[in-house]
Write a structure and sequence with these properties.
single chain; 701 residues; alpha+beta; 8-stranded parallel barrel; 6-stranded antiparallel β-sheet; 15 helices
Length: 701
């Protein structure tokens, strides 16, 4: 973890509310060093701009296909679960030690420990990727995973005290009373081209008087919002005021409402109190700004030790942040406002090697392991778990999937591999696959832990096929054939009119033989439909048509149901089944055969010097036997009906591409130099089904 933590990252994060008062001299890399690093980062799929010159010079041709996100966002707006009144929308500002880390690369990367990926995405509405760059574009790995989970992904426009040429932002031409801003058009085009959903505008430096005017900045923001269109989002950060001063208001007020209105949303600083939130709500209502578009900042790091002269403070004033982040979320939920959580990767930065445990404590309120430690030196007293105010208790839960489509194969952002592949991952036994994280089930904490039998699930990526393991434990010895236990897995909102079909693959070999019945269930208003699971060796396919007798009925929930006793000793855990995938789609799409092929596979040597690489490139062809663009399954502007491609050689997987090209592993290329290698490509659709295969023998120079 040490490589993630640089002194400049610690001194200058967005969450540090004092940095504008003490602008540090730029003692970092030289412009030439930055240029070289930017070229190297490009090979990882990263794109960003350090200067206004770079931004103004950008064209769509200045981009490799693997720098673009290919996954369209599953549309779930205004489709939160019906049982979530009084819950807050949640926005995450992902400020993780400077960001653009190797594990976020489009190339699967070996890691010693798991890093931040966020496994609670059904409780997240907006995700902002933040780095100390002028223009920060989210890595396509993040965008693909977030879009798969229905989350909006925003980049950051950041003008810091040391930023040169900031006046370029407001340069414009006039046509009568109308102003036209070239950079507004450029920023909108960048968002559309790279496939993310808008911008956070964070201006931390006053403009020179010769270009400044609040109406000029407002016009820039209005144009940027209009250029992006209604499907994208623009958020103003609470720093610059209408008087051209950097002054954090910690509220929506007359000093920033002009810019907040132009953007349609605002993210406030995190040092607010009850009165500021309440007054902001009243101003929003009177100004016709939706309260859910007012995101109040919460500094997760405020719970750490801080200096006496510059204490870190967030809501609540004493003990806020960290494991009490959910206290602020609860307050905002009560008011009908939204929460903006700064630096949610705190759990991984502050608890090296224990990040997932700490994240569960913050989001679910679970207890820390006994050996938990942190740099504060008094972990268990300073960071006490707060189950009553865990984030999930007051965060709004969105439904998974879309109106007519849902698919998950339970893939996590990190996985293990066999020893034969260690050389591809720097000798590490675990690799990052951030862009592959699937829709994950809702946490099992919502169940009743005092039932006679307790059901829960856990994700297992230790084998080549990810799976969701369903387990049970006998809590009481008096359970009988009438005992019923429910384990909700996904909240849905889909028509139950018979047009859809569910297809579930699971290994049911461990089902109890005589004492109980285990079923999948589909819940609709007023009724539950059971799909009995039969025992059998190997992976079993369970299929069910989703039709309710009640006109207009909707599917609300999918889960696992147990009736009876599991027949084990009290306190003993029993594995019931392993689910490998769940697919819900229109029945018509199940009956459609693939009409695609992979063509023109070839090797290309690109770049020079440190950026030289060997790329496998290909195209695909649609043979027109099905109108895949209208079949209600997601499709990509870049890869069409294909979600991704697996690259194999000699039965060994070399990589997974979300584009129509892939950089080959350098060690593999060096080892096979001068040889002819047979490559196999397997193209997979957004529903997890194989659409095309192709192989070719290609010489490596």
């Amino acid at each position: 973890m040490a490589y993630l933590l640089g002194w400049k990252d610690i001194l200058r994060p967005i969450r540090d509310g004092y940095r504008h008062l003490f602008p540090a001299p730029d003692t970092g890399p030289t412009p030439e060093e930055r240029r070289k690093q930017r070229d190297l980062d490009r090979l990882k799929g990263f794109a960003y701009f350090d200067t206004f010159d770079q931004l103004e010079a950008w064209t769509e041709d200045d981009c490799d296909s693997f720098q673009r996100a290919n996954t369209p966002r599953i549309r779930t707006e205004d489709r939160s679960t019906n049982d979530d009144p009084g819950k807050a929308d949640v926005l995450l500002i992902h400020d993780y030690s400077g960001n653009y880390h190797d594990y976020e690369s489009v190339q699967a990367t070996g890691v010693d420990v798991e890093l931040y990926s966020c496994e609670y995405l059904q409780f997240v509405d907006v995700f902002i990727y933040f780095s100390h760059k002028l223009v920060c574009i989210p890595p396509p790995t993040w965008t693909n995973t977030l879009h798969r989970n229905g989350v909006e992904v925003l980049g950051t426009l950041l003008v810091e005290p040391q930023t040169e040429g900031s006046e370029c932002l407001l340069q414009h031409t006039r046509d009568g009373q109308n102003m036209s801003f070239p950079l507004a058009k450029t920023l909108a085009r960048i968002a559309g081209h790279y496939g993310f959903d808008g911008w956070l505008v964070n201006i931390e430096k006053r403009f020179s008087n010769d270009v400044w005017g609040p109406e000029v900045l407002k016009a820039f923001l209005c144009q940027l919002r209009a250029e992006m269109g209604g499907a994208m989002r623009l958020i103003w950060y609470d720093a610059l005021t209408i008087s051209n001063k950097i002054s954090y208001q910690n509220a929506l007020n007359t000093s920033n409402i002009k810019f907040a209105s132009a953007c349609g949303s605002i993210l406030t600083n995190y040092c607010w109190k009850d009165t500021e939130a309440e007054n902001s709500l009243q101003l929003a209502l009177s100004s016709k700004i939706s309260p859910k578009n007012i995101f109040f900042g919460i500094d997760v790091w405020a719970q750490n030790k801080s200096s006496f002269t510059h204490p870190r403070i967030t809501y609540p004033e004493y003990g806020g942040g960290g494991t009490n982040t959910g206290v602020a979320v609860a307050k905002l939920a009560d008011l009908g406002l939204s929460a903006g959580i700064f630096a949610p990767a705190w759990s991984f930065e502050h608890f090296p090697g224990k990040g997932r445990d700490a994240e569960r404590t913050v989001w679910q309120g679970t207890s820390f392991p006994r050996d938990m430690d942190c740099s504060c030196g008094d972990c268990l007293s300073r960071h006490r778990p707060n189950e009553a105010f865990a984030i999930l208790k007051n965060a709004k839960e969105r439904v998974a999937g879309s109106e007519n489509f849902f698919y998950t194969d339970f893939t996590r952002a990190f996985a293990t591999h066999d020893d034969a592949s260690n050389d591809l991952f720097g000798g590490c036994s675990t690799h990052a696959q951030l862009g592959s994280q699937s829709i994950l089930p809702r946490p099992a904490i919502f169940g009743d832990r005092h039932q006679a039998i307790q059901l829960w699930h856990r994700l297992d990526n230790s084998s080549s096929t990810p799976r969701l393991v369903i387990e049970a434990m006998q809590n009481q010895s008096n359970s009988d054939d009438t005992t019923e236990v429910w384990l909700p897995l996904f909240k849905l909102d889909m028509p139950a009119d018979g047009s859809l079909q569910a297809e579930i693959y699971s290994d049911n070999a461990s089902l109890p033989a005589d004492h109980s019945i285990v079923s999948f269930y589909i819940r609709t208003p007023g009724s539950v439909h059971f799909i009995t699971i039969t025992s059998g060796k190997g992976v079993q396919r369970t299929v069910c048509s989703l039709k309710s007798l009640v006109p207009g009925s909707r599917i609300q929930e999918l889960g696992v149901h147990l009736k009876g006793s599991i027949g084990t000793a009290r306190g003993k855990t029993t594995q019931l089944l392993n689910i490998t995938s769940v697919r819900i789609m229109p029945i018509s799409t199940f009956q459609t055969s693939s009409s695609f092929s992979i063509d023109q596979m070839q090797l290309e040597n690109r770049g020079e010097g440190d950026c030289e690489r060997m790329q496998l490139v290909w195209s695909f062809k649609d043979h027109g036997r099905a109108n895949w663009k209208d079949n209600k399954i997601p499709c990509s502007k870049i890869t069409g009906p294909f979600s991704h491609f697996f690259i194999y050689t000699d039965g060994r997987m070399l990589g997974k591409a979300y584009a129509l090209d892939h950089i080959l592993n350098k060690q593999f290329v060096e080892k096979n130099a001068g040889l002819t290698v047979e490559f196999e490509l397997v193209g997979v659709g957004f529903d997890g089904q194989t659409l095309a295969k192709s192989s070719a023998k290609l010489p490596l120079p």
